[in-house]
Records
---
Amino acid sequence: MRIASDAKMIIEILEQAGYEAFAVGGCVRDFLMGRPCDDMDITTSARPAETEKILNNHQIKCIETGLKHGTITAVTDGGSFEITTYRTDGAYTDNRHPEHVEFVTDIKEDLSRRDFTINAMAYNDRAGIVDLFGGRDDLDKKIIRAVGDPDKRFKEDALRIMRAIRFASVLSFDIETQTKKAIFNNKELLKNVSYERIFTELSKLLLGENVFNVLMEYREVIGVVIPELLAIFHIPQNTKWHIYDVWEHTCKSVEAAPKDLALRLTMLLHDIGKAYAKTTDENGTDHFKGHQKISAEYARTALKRLKVPNEIYDRVMFLVPIHDMHIGTDRKKIKKWLSKVGEKGLRDLIEVKRADKLAQNPEMTERELSNLGVTQKELDRIIREGEPFTVKALAVNGYDLISLGCRGEEIGEKLALLLQKVIDGELENDKESLITYLKQKEV
Ligand code: ATP
Ligand code: MG
């Protein structure tokens, strides 16, 4: 295995000082799968204070990032590396934190506290791959299997339930039968886990390659962390637009959206309101009038509980209530949208609409999908050609209007009017035309 040269250097320094040290966990797994790895963790038999002393003697800076858990971070020109002393976790009392950690001297004990066999391997050049729980075999078979008794492991730390389905999504692996059984049996324990930790795993899950299958198969787990979704797990939609029920449509739309967390969260939450807005007419056709706003209310509650970062929260809350508004392919219309929601907002909306359509009845969506392509091309052209769509881009500004005698709110109103005229093609965006127009209007 080839490991980052600075990690290799740290491992060699510690081993030369008489300790054991290995690359461990995710980076070994990713290397064996031929995937890139950006955080390389190191495990060592040296205690934190010893590690720090040895590395300092080699002019390597250390930061005490998690002394309580035996972790320090070494900082080199090539990056930073978490170095954790071999440890076992003490008793767990609340399904999330070990009471205390205990340092040990045998790597076997350290590997056995790790969550899944594929994450419980270590490597250094001296010993090669250390694989005591069949991790390599499970990697070959594409299986996620708990290290030890899955039921006990999920009771110790319920976050592992989210981690299991996250890896199933990201790596496109299956979960081994007993591990799967224990996931469903213990899912309620996720309520004891902090939402920050849950959100980290959920985010990775949503961006995974296999997200559709995982959301379908493990909906009951997702329902524990976002109970707002429970309402749409089994809602048929008898309309010509749909061939899937609301949940399957939701999962398809998540998968169809670009790998951008805000867009994928938007798709996950966009149709919750359908559970509350459904009506069936005399022909047996279902309608979901007004579901978008209801979805937005449930989305707000869910996002707040998950403590989603502001930037993502704002984008999702902007998109959910307008997810199926008409944009159009006409330049003027697109520029009006741009003036209201900005370039990023409109690009997001196009992606959301496309993902939504891709998850509907393909016989009904061809035109709409091709229109979205046209809208996108027009949008690109407007941006490329620098056509104005904000008051800022106008050839006059507030000061020009003040010198024409405008005051207070009138300034904003006039600028908005000018923009409207420019977008409609009734006025050229040059100072003279705009000012002439305003002067004429006064008389
Ligand atoms: P990623 O590629 O997303 O970083 P990872 O496997 O490296 O995946 P980390 O959260 O960085 O995941 O954790 C590093 C290692 O620590 C894991 O590979 C695993 O061995 C161990 N680990 C992490 N979280 C847990 C947990 N909750 N229970 C047991 N072991 C864990
Ligand atoms: Mg990692």
---
Amino acid sequence: MLNRRNFLTAAVGVAATAGLAACAKEDGGPSDSSSGGSKAITLGFAQTGSESGWRTANTDSVKAAAPEAGINLKFSDAQGKPENQISAIRSYIAQGVDVIAFSPLVVKGWDAVLKEAKAKNIPVVLTDRSIETSDDSLYVTLVGSDFTDEGRRAAKILEKVLEKAGHKGKVKIAQLEGTTGAAPAIERAKGFKEVMDAEHKDDWEIVASQSGDFTRAGGKQVMQAFLQSNPDINVLYAHNDDMGLGAIQAIEAAGKKPGKDILIVTVDGVKDGFAAMAEGKINAIIECNPLLGPQLMEVVKKVKNGEKVDRWVKTKESDFMQDQAKAELPNRKY
Ligand code: GZL
């Protein structure tokens, strides 16, 4: 296992806004915490949707960690629409929650609603994905992965996959991008290209690249089109396992062997991805850990109590080659 500990402490301690007004519990939600009558923290969480196995595991982790931390969770699912996330955040502001957390579907378009949260002294925590903003005060911290590094790691592990396969000649890569405008899609492409440009200018070429929106259906549909227009593709880099699994269906339908005729590198590390890798259909997986719930709840408590929190807390992640799949599969927690 190429064990990499990504842990960057940006040491930008941002003291959250202290002394938040206690939130009124309109819905008569869980009563105050039993200990000493201090009010339980109410967290409003706006999730992206349920587009992939990774997302399901991420949602389960958040929902399980809140009660374990004594935090009253309000949860919404945006069904893949940024406008629904914005509405959910507005609703949490109106309800006077103590902290807001969300996984921004795309990087742009959040300043207005986050300024509304700031005006009400409600601190915001980003989980999983980052945003583009000119005002750093609009969120306290990001709890999530370094997607650019994941892209670099995907390119580096592809070098090992090509060597192991005894690949000779040009490397013609199809890239299945994540949701257009989403941080993981932008950054996983950027990191992969960094390594390509630096070390494989003459032998690697991305011959096709398009979004499959992080879904299996999207991966299958786009890969079908890729194979029609680029029959000489010999590598697939998919920004998540689900699109890779959809692409495998298209590759097999075209009479080709995934993991042999077309070498495949994906990102996430969900159980189904490892199962496909154990069958020899995926050649390597870059792990992206969705189990952020416990970390998020600890950060929420610190933010509510006005304690210093790091500007970016990263998750521990590993990378796996095909020959590790069978042994690792029983260990997968998502
Ligand atoms: C990455 C996360 C991505 C996953 C996909 O942290 O935002 O979104 O890689 C998920 O599976 O849909």
